[in-house]
Amino acid sequence: MSFSLDTALPEAIGQGPAKKLERAFGMQTLGDLLAHYPRRYADAAELTPIRELPIGETVTIVAEVLSSSARMMRNRNGAMTDVIIGDGHGRVSLMFFAKNLGQAEWRRDELRPGRRGVFSGKVSAFNEVTQFSHPQYELFDDDEDRKAQVEERAHRPIPIYPATATIASAQLREIIESVLTKLGDVPDPLPADVREANGLLDARTALIQVHRPETKTDVDPAVRTLRMHEALVLQTALLQQREAVRSLNATARPAGAGGLLERFDAALPYTLTPDQQTVGDQISDDLIGTWPMNRLVQGEVGSGKTLVALRAMLQVAESGGQSALIAPTEVLAGQHLRSITKMLGPDLSAQLMPTLLTGQMPAAERRRAALRVASGQALIVVGTHALLGEKTTFADLGFVVVDEQHRFGVEQREALRAKGSSPHALVLTATPIPRTVAMTVFGDLDTSVIRTMPAGRAGIQSFVAPLAEHPAWWHRVWERASEEIALGRQVFAVCAAIDTTTKSGGQEDAAALLPSEEGGTGPRWGVVQLEAALATHPTIGGLRRAVLHGKMPSDEKDAIMQSFARGEIDVLIATTVIEVGVDVPNASTMIVLDADRFGVSQLHQLRGRVGRGGVPGLCLLVTETEEDSLARERVDAVAATLDGFALAEVDLELRGEGDVLGANQSGVRSSLRLLRVVKDSKLIARARELAEEILHHDPQLAEHPDLRDAIARRVSDEDRAALAKN
User: Fold this and answer.
1) Which residues contact 167 (CB under 8 A, 6 or more apart)?
2) Which of 458, 489, 571, 725 is packed most tightly, with the most Cβ within 10 A?
C-alpha cells in the first residue's frame, strides 16, 4: 500500500500521532507533514566527541550507557533518573524527570549499563559537569539487523525539525522516516522542460532527499527544487487572484472638466511633485477601468500619499461615489480628518462633508455621523475599525483607502470592501517594501512608489546616544532637547512601554517591539517612568509636558494631540501611538528611549514625525546596548541613512522576512517555508515570469494539472480567501 500527499494523517501514521501533529502544527495530510522541512542537519559523519561538546548547542552523539539510577527528588515532588553515558573520550550526565518513582525506574531499566545508542540534546553545564536534560535518544537493539540499520542512519546527516514541547525533533524524524518508505507518486508542479533546463529534481526525489539525505551533497539540489516549487505555486496563485479581481465589473469614476478634482488642483498653493503626479495619473486611469483598482502606494514618511489619495477621492465623488479611509488608530483617524478638511478648504468641505466615525465617539455624535454616511451626504468618511461594524452602511461606497496596511488583518479589510459593489481599493504604506517582498506579499496588487519629497523640507539629522559607552550622554540628550525648546520648537520622547513596573510592561504593539538581546524582561523606560524622571530635571522639569498612550480615552488623546499641534506642549512623552501620520510641523526633535527594542522600519517611521516643515529635524536614538550587538547594528543602521528603501533591505537582512512580513499578512504569504525573499530574489522573479507565461497560454491550468493540484494543496480555501481580501 502506498500513500499520496493527500492521504489523511490518521490513515498514514495512526490517530494518536496525527492528533498531536494537528494540535502542534495544524497538519492534516501527508503533504502537510512532508512540507515540514528540516531547519538544519546535524553532521553525523563528524560526531562531536563528548569532551568537545559546545555549551548551549544542540548536538547528536553516539555513546554507551555507563550507569543509571532512579530516585525521588528531595526539594520538590516527583522523581528523576540519573544516567551517565560515555564515548571512550568523555562522559555526559543525562537527567530525566518523572511524576513518580515507577516512571523513573522504567527509564532506568531501559537505559541500563552497556546499552548503546544515538543521543540528541542541548548541552549545558552544572557544577562543571556536562549534561543533557531530557535528551532524545534511540537505542541500538540486540537485533543485529536493527542495530546495523540504526548505526547506518546515525552516520547520515540527521534532520533537525522545528519542534514543540509536545512533539520533539526526534519524534518528527521517526514519523517522517516511517512514511517515506510508503510514499507513492508525487505530482510535480514544474513543467518537465523547466525542471531539466534548471537541473532540478523530480518532486518525489526532492522530498526524499530533503528528509533523508544520504550525504550532505543531497540536500542542496532538493532544497533548490522545493524552493522553486514554492515560488511557482505562490506566484501562480497571486496572479490568478489578480486576474480574478480583473474579472469583476467596477463602476467607472471619471473626472470631468470643471469638476471637483479640477477645482481642488486649481486651489492648491503648491505644485505636485513628479512622483505625486505620476502616481496620481496611474490611479486616475485605474478609476475609469472596467475592473476594480487594486493598487499599493509606497511612499516615504511625508512624501504626500494622503494628498494623492484625496485627489482620487475627489474623482470618485464627482459621480456621487463615497470614499472610506480606514486608519489603524483613533489619533491617526482624527489627524487624517483634520488634514483632509484643511486641504479641501471650506467650500469643498461643505460639499463633500468629510465625516469621522470611530468607536470612541459619544453615542449621539456617532449616530449622527452614521446617518450622514448611510444617506450619502458624507462623500468622504474617515474612521477606524468602527467602519467595519454591521451597523455602518454606505449609500454608494466606490473607493476604499487602507492606511498603513500592515496594521490590519485581511478579514478586517474585506469587511470594509464588502460594504460596496466591487469598490476600487488603494493601499497606502509609509513602510518601504523591497521589491521581492512586494512581489511576494502584494503580488496580486499593482504597485506605485512615491520617492520624491515635497519642497521646503529642512531635513533630519540622526544620532545614536550609546549610554553603554557614554553614560553622561543621557544628560546631554535632555540638554539638547531644552536647547530646541528654547528656540520655540517642540520635542517627542517615545518609550517602548507605558509602565515598566506592570507585568506586561504596558507594551502597546508587542509584535513590533523586539526582545532584549541581553535577556531582560522588558524595556527600561516606560512613559510613566520617563515622566517621573523628567519632572525633576533641572530644565525639562519646568517645561510644559504631557503624556500620551493608547490606553487613554479617545477624547483625551485627541485633545492632547491638538494641544501639541497648537504649540501648547513643549515635550510630548508618548508610546508608538504617534508613530504613524501625526503631523506637527513645529516639532523638531524625536528622542527614542530603548531604541534597540524597536525594528528598523519602526524607528524610521518615528523619525519621520519631525523635520516635516521648515524646522530642521533632530532624531536621538538612545540605547544601552553594546557596540558589537545585533540590536545596536539596527540602531546604527537607522542613524546612518534617511533612505527608507535602503533601510528596508537592511531590516530584511538583520531580522529576516518572517518578522518583516508580520503575522497580519495572513495566509500563504507569511508562511514561507524554504523560500527567502532576499536570498531567493532572482528565483522569485523567474517564478513570476514562468507563472505569467503558463497562465497566458493556460489560464485554467488545464494542461498543468499537477501545478493546479499543488496550488489547491498549498493554498487552502482559507488562504485563497486571504488572497482575495487584499
Assistant:
1) 20, 21, 24, 25
2) 571
